[in-house]
Design brief:
Blueprint lengths: L19 H24 L22 H4 L8 E6 L5 E8 L13 H11 L7 H10 L3 E6 L4 E8 L3 H13 L5 H14 L7 H14 L11 H5 L3 H12 L5 E6 L3 H39 L20 E6 L5 E8 L1 E2 L7 H13 L6 H9 L5 E6 L1 E2 L4 E8 L1 H20 L4 H13 L8 H14 L4 H12 L2 H11 L6 E6 L4 H7 L8 E4 L15
Parallel strand pairs: 1-5, 6-12, 6-13, 8-10
Antiparallel strand pairs: 2-4, 2-5, 3-4, 7-11, 7-12, 9-11
Helix pairs in contact: 3-9, 5-10, 11-14, 11-17, 12-13, 13-17, 14-16
Length: 540
C-alpha cells in the first residue's frame, strides 16, 4: 500500500518557503553559535560568590600633555588651548605677574584698584556705561581681578561672538579710561565700608593673623586705609597700568568651541598690538629710571629713584595673642611657618601633601576633625592647612569654639601635632592619605577649562609640567618615616603662634598652656583698631 502524500500548508502571502538544504544550513549556523557561546562561557571565570572576590581593572587615566595643547603665539609667554565643542562657548583666562606686592608703600591697594577699574572704568573710546552695554549686548562675561602676585582677566562668550568679545577684552586691557566719576563712586563705597570692617570676627582674625605670621609689611598684611585710598586717583592708576601691566607679557588659557587656527589668528592680532604698546611703555620706563637715577645722584641718595626701601618688619614671636571681640563664639588660629621648598621639584613637597592629608585632608581622613569634633566635641569648625611653597608658606589651623572649651581645643590640637611628630603614622592611615590624593588627581583636570588653566598656572608659578606626570608615583612613594621627619620639623609647638578673637578667656587656663604648658612665649593682649586708619583705638 502506497503512502499517502503529505499535504503541504500553503505559504502565507509575502512569505517564501525554505528548502530543506537552507534549513539544514541554518541549523548548522545555530549549532556553531551555540558551541562558540559555550566556549566563551567556559573561558569566563566563575561568578563571584561574595563582593570580596570581585576583581576590577581600571585603565590609568592621564590628561593631555602640555605639549599637545600648547599654541605658540608671538607676544605671549605661553598659550594653551583645550578644544571642547560640547557647548558653543569659549573661555579665556589671561594672567599677568603683577599684584599687591607691586604696590608703592604710600599707595596700598593700587594694584587691586587698577585691576578692578580696568573693567569698571570704561575705555578710551567707551564710557563705563557704554562698555557695560557692549558686553551685555554680546551676552558675554568679562572680569578683571587683582591678587597678591598676579592680575587675572577672564572672558566667557558664545563662540560666534568671541571675536567681538575678544576685541572688548583687549580694549579694556590696553586702552583703559579709568573714568574719574566711576572711580570716585568706588572710592565712596569703600570709604563707607570702613565703618563695618571690624565687625566680622573672621575677617578681623585673618587680618591680624597675617600681621602676626608674615609681618605687618607683607603684601598679604597691608590693608587699605582712608589715607591710602585718598591717593588712588586716576593719574595713579594710569601710571601703574603703564609701568606694570603694559610692560608684561601674558599667560593665556583658552578652552571651548574654537579651533587652533582661529585662536592663533585672533590672539596674534591683539598680542601684536600689545607688543607695540609694551615697547613704547618700556621706552618711557627707561626714561623714568634715568631721570630717577639723576635725581638720586644729585641728592646723594643711594638707590635708583630715591632712598632704599625700608626692610620689612618681621613676624611676631611665638606666643598667645588675644583680641577681645563682641562675638558670641570665638575664632582661633593656630600655626607657624609651613614647609619652605627649594623649587617645585623638591621631594618634600610630596611629603607635605601627605602630611596635610593626614592632618586635615579633603576626604574622610582628618586627625583634627576626628579628635576635636567627632570624639571630643570641642569645636563647631576646624580646618587645617599646611602650605608648601618656595616662600611665605604657613601652617594654619582655624577653630570656632565657645570660650569655655577653647583652651581644651587648643590642647587637643597640640596633642595631635605632637603625636604626628612622635610616632610614625600607621600603614593603613598612610595608604588612605595617599589614596585620597591620588583619587582626586583627575579633578585637577576636570574639564577643558581646568586642563588649559592648569598648564598656564604651571608656567606662571615656574613649575614644570612634569609635576603632573610624576604626581601619583611620587605620592605613592612617600614613607611613614618621611612624614614623621617633616612633622618633627614643622609641627613643633615651640614654633606656634595662637590668635584668639572673641570673648575673654579664663586667665588661669591661659597660664597653664603658655610658659608652663605646650606653648612658649607670652600672652599678649592686642588693641582694637580704628576701622578707617587701622591705628590702635585711643592712639593720637
Amino acid at each position: 500500500m502506497s503512502a499517502e502524500p503529505v499535504a503541504r500548508r500553503p505559504a502565507a502571502p509575502g512569505r517564501r518557503l525554505r528548502s530543506p538544504a537552507f534549513v539544514s544550513s541554518l541549523l548548522g549556523v545555530a549549532v556553531a553559535q551555540a558551541l562558540m557561546a559555550t566556549s566563551v562561557v567556559a573561558q569566563r571565570p566563575a561568578p563571584a560568590r561574595h563582593p570580596s572576590e570581585l576583581s576590577l581593572h581600571f585603565e590609568r587615566w592621564s590628561p593631555p600633555t602640555a605639549e599637545e595643547i600648547a599654541l605658540p603665539i608671538t607676544g605671549a609667554r605661553s598659550v594653551y588651548l583645550m578644544r571642547d565643542d560640547l557647548v558653543p562657548l569659549v573661555r579665556l583666562t589671561l594672567a599677568l605677574p603683577v599684584g599687591d606686592e607691586d604696590d608703592p608703600a604710600e599707595r596700598v591697594g593700587l594694584a587691586s584698584m587698577t585691576a578692578a577699574m580696568l573693567r569698571r572704568g570704561g575705555t578710551v573710546s567707551r564710557t563705563p556705561a557704554e562698555l557695560d552695554e557692549a558686553i551685555d549686548a554680546l551676552g558675554a562675561r568679562l572680569e578683571v581681578h587683582g591678587g597678591e602676585s598676579r592680575t587675572v582677566a577672564t572672558l566667557v562668550s558664545l563662540s560666534e561672538v568671541f571675536p567681538e568679545a575678544l576685541d572688548l577684552l583687549f580694549e579694556v586691557l590696553l586702552e583703559p579710561r579709568f573714568d574719574a566719576d566711576r572711580l570716585a563712586r568706588v572710592r565712596r563705597a569703600l570709604e563707607t565700608g570702613f565703618a563695618s570692617r571690624e565687625d566680622d570676627p573672621v575677617a578681623v582674625l585673618r587680618r591680624r593673623w597675617n600681621d602676626l605670621s608674615l609681618g605687618p609689611d607683607h603684601p598679604r598684611s597691608r590693608q587699605l586705609t582712608r589715607a591710602s585710598l585718598a591717593r588712588l586717583d586716576d593719574v595713579a592708576l594710569h601710571e601703574f597700568h603703564r609701568r606694570h601691566l603694559l610692560a608684561e607679557q601674558p599667560w593665556i588659557a583658552l578652552s571651548g568651541a574654537i579651533t587652533d587656527e582661529r585662536a592663533r589668528a585672533l590672539l596674534g592680532e591683539h598680542l601684536g598690538r600689545w607688543s607695540r604698546r609694551r615697547a613704547a611703555a618700556a621706552e618711557l620706563a627707561d626714561a623714568d629710571r634715568a631721570e630717577g637715577a639723576a635725581a638720586s645722584a644729585a641728592a646723594d641718595v643711594v638707590g635708583a629713584g630715591g632712598a632704599q626701601a625700608p626692610a620689612r618688619r618681621p613676624p611676631a614671636p611665638p606666643g598667645l595673642y588675644l583680641l577681645e571681640h563682641p562675638a558670641p563664639q570665638g575664632k582661633m588660629m593656630i600655626g607657624g611657618p609651613g614647609v619652605t621648598i627649594d623649587g617645585w621639584a623638591d621631594e618634600r613637597l610630596w611629603t607635605a601633601m601627605v602630611l596635610q592629608e593626614i592632618l586635615d585632608g579633603g576626604g574622610v581622613l582628618s586627625r583634627l576633625r576626628s579628635r576635636l569634633r567627632a570624639r571630643d566635641g570641642l569645636v563647631y569648625t576646624v580646618q587645617g592647612l599646611l602650605e608648601a611653597a618656595p616662600r611665605d608658606a604657613l601652617l594654619e589651623i582655624f577653630l570656632e569654639a565657645e570660650p569655655p572649651s577653647a583652651i581644651a581645643a587648643l590642647r587637643a590640637v597640640v596633642d595631635e601635632l605632637e603625636e604626628l611628630a612622635a610616632r610614625p603614622v600607621g600603614a593603613e592611615e598612610l595608604e588612605l592619605a595617599q589614596q585620597g590624593l591620588v583619587q582626586r588627581y583627575p579633578f585637577h583636570f576636570a574639564d577643558a577649562e581646568a586642563i588649559a588653566g592648569r598648564y598656564a598656572q604651571d608656567d606662571l608659578l615656574g613649575r614644570s609640567h612634569e609635576h603632573w606626570a610624576v604626581y601619583r608615583d611620587e605620592i605613592d612613594a612617600v614613607s611613614a618615616r618621611q612624614v614623621q621627619a617633616l612633622a618633627r620639623e614643622v609641627l613643633d609647638p615651640e614654633r606656634l603662634r595662637v590668635l584668639w578673637v572673641g570673648p575673654p578667656l579664663d586667665d588661669r587656663l591661659l597660664r597653664e598652656v603658655v610658659g608652663r604648658g605646650p606653648l612658649v612665649g607670652e600672652v599678649t593682649r592686642l588693641p582694637r583698631l580704628d576701622p578707617a586708619t587701622l591705628e590702635p583705638l585711643g592712639s593720637p
